[in-house]
Amino acid sequence: MKCFELDRKLKTIALVSRLLTDFMYIIDIILQIWIGILEKRRILVSDLLAMSAKWPWKSYIIMDILAILPATQVLTFILFSKTRGSSSLLAKELMATLALLQYVPRVIRMYVSCKEFSKSSTILIGTWTFFKWGFSLFLYIHTSYVLGAFWYFLAIQRQSTCWQLACQSEQNGCKPSTFYCNDRLFQNITTLNYLCPINPSDAKVFDFGIFLDALQSGVVESADFPRKILHCFWWGLRNLSSLGSNLETSSYAMENLFAVSISLLGLLLLMFYLSGNLQQIWAVTVTSLAKRKARRHMELQMKLEIQCWLSENGIPKDMKKVMMRRLQIHLEGEKNVDVNTKSIISIVSVEDRRLIKLYLSWYILKKVPMFRTLDEKVLIEICHSLQPVMFTEDTYIVKEGKPLDKMLFITQGIVWSYGSSNNNGSTRCLKKGDFYGEELLNWVSEVTYLTALPISTRFVKSHTHVEAFVLRAYDLKTIVSKNWLHFSKFTPPSQKQHLAASSLQESWRRHHEKRARAVHLAQLREMGNNKITDEVPLLGQFK
Fold first, then answer.
1. Number of domains the chain is built from
2. Within a domain: 336
3. pLDDT tens digits, residue range 446-475?
4. How far apart are CA 9 and CA 206, in angstroms?
């Protein structure tokens, strides 16, 4: 059977698919015109035509119109089916050329849309990178599909050419025609098997070149659409990837031009990838190196700041290396961490926290007259109760006439202490190693309840950035009640009995809370909650 037959089902699918894509272009054209009119709605009608020549969307509309011209449909359903003889060959070549040319405005339009999408200020960098990689992959796959389709079409055209030439050169009873199956006269011409050999092929008789595989594989004869499209797509993808280096062409001009176009398209796609995606990769690499360099610089700067902080705060040399190593481990991966007492104490372990508090506050506590003769265990307990604080420049720490609820121990910075004109107006400068709030010690030895906090008679204000420790009145009261024997020597005789009673009361309260806590935990464990730890508090009973 030597004839061509048009696949009606495939024709319908191709026509509907083309109409759908053309419909999208038509909608885009309408939207462009409508947006252009809205932008120029304030311009007079007489000036509209003059201004339209400068509208930027005009060139886009021209490309869209060129992309939807039904040139290939007209040639397929009119010229291809009506022409005979040599004119049919010209019609097929013209259809192939127009189909190829019509892809140009479509590809240009896709590229322009991609560029406009990249200029959007709201798009994320990661999203744009993903989109660009996806667009490159789409172009690669789409180009492979188009090349496979042209390979399939040109293979049929090449076989038709062989039949035409065979009929012209031999007296075999056939005449040059389109060889449609409707032409019943030429369906069983056996001599064409010898003049157009396919399986096996004979290049000396007729060289099918790169189209021989399409004819030998049977895809041009099969009505199985998935088989056709997948085989042709694989052929296009394989040869586009190799830039057409494995193609063995004949001397046919159209075939050689097709092979050249495969090589050029492969090179263009490779250049597009290199100029686009690799530039993005290079930019990401440079950015990553810059971030890594900045991070190393930040880590080095932080290391120097930590060393300075350890030296300024009197940390012993034998502890510097240990503390330095531990602080670097804790600060690893942190960004923009201010190296100060509060930040360091907040990130180190409980053991290191106690050591730092001890080294920073021990010599200041020894300056307090009441603390000089205290047992070291009591001083260590006081150190553990200290809380790190920071104050910015010109910040009121304590105000005159307000309750004095804390003692202040300065480790960095300068603080001014002064009274009003009606009170003691003298000014005192407090520096590193000084303290304020000794009145709280006299209060804690005499009064039991926090409702009677002493009133400050002076203003305390930071002059520079200040780092300090504070001892809260509640914490101080707890320490005194637990160690009342050590503080009894500072208590007036009339208050010693009261202090002892309040201390016993405080001890009984702690014992009661501890017992209630144990009972509560036991109840929870009985309920099956084995994950409860000893750190679960009773609401409203623990600080």
1. 3
2. yes
3. 655 445 788 888 899 999 999 899 999 888
4. 32
Same domain, 343 and 261: no
Of 284, 310, 338, the residue that ends a domain is: 284
pTM over 0.85: no
457 and 518 belong to one structural domain: no
**Contact at 8 Å (CB) between 313 and 341?**
yes
Comparing CA positions, the residue from 75, 62, 240 lying closest to residue 151 is 240
24 and 160 in a single domain? The answer is yes
More confident residue, 114 or 515: 515
CA–CA dist 449, 461 (Å, integer): 28
Residue after which a domain boundary falls, among 491, 511, 532: 491
137-175 residues labelled b (16+ CB within 10 A) or e (exposed) = eebbeebbebbbbbbbbbbbbbbbbbbbebbeeeeeebe
Return the amino acid letter for 90: L
Please write the tens of the pLDDT for every residue from 398-442.
988 888 889 999 988 999 998 876 666 688 899 988 999 888 887
H or E element that contains 14: helix 8-39
| Residue 231: CB atoms within 10 Å | 20
Contacts of 92 (CB under 8 A, 6+ apart): 80, 157, 160
Q: CA 25 → CA 20, 32, 83, 111, 194, distances in Å?
A: 9, 10, 31, 15, 48
Residues 279-311 pLDDT 10s: 777 777 888 888 888 888 877 887 787 778 777
SS3 content of the chain, % helix, strand, coil (to 5): 65, 10, 30
Judged on CB neighbours under 10 Å (0-12, 13-18, 19+), 47 is exposed
pLDDT of residue 119: 58
What's the burial of 499, exposed, middle or buried (CB within 10 Å: 0-12/13-18/19+)?
buried
Residues 71 and 123 in one domain: yes
User: Within this chain, do residues 413 and 518 fall inside the same structural domain, yes or no?
Assistant: no
Complete edge-to-edge strand list for the sheet that includes strand 387-391: 387-391, 466-472, 406-412, 435-436
Q: How far apart are CA 48 and CA 327, in angstroms?
A: 72
Residue 220 · residue 159 · CB < 8 Å: yes
Phi first, then psi: give them for residue 281, nearest 5 degrees. -65, -40
Q: 178, 254, 181: which is closest to 211 by C-alpha?
A: 254
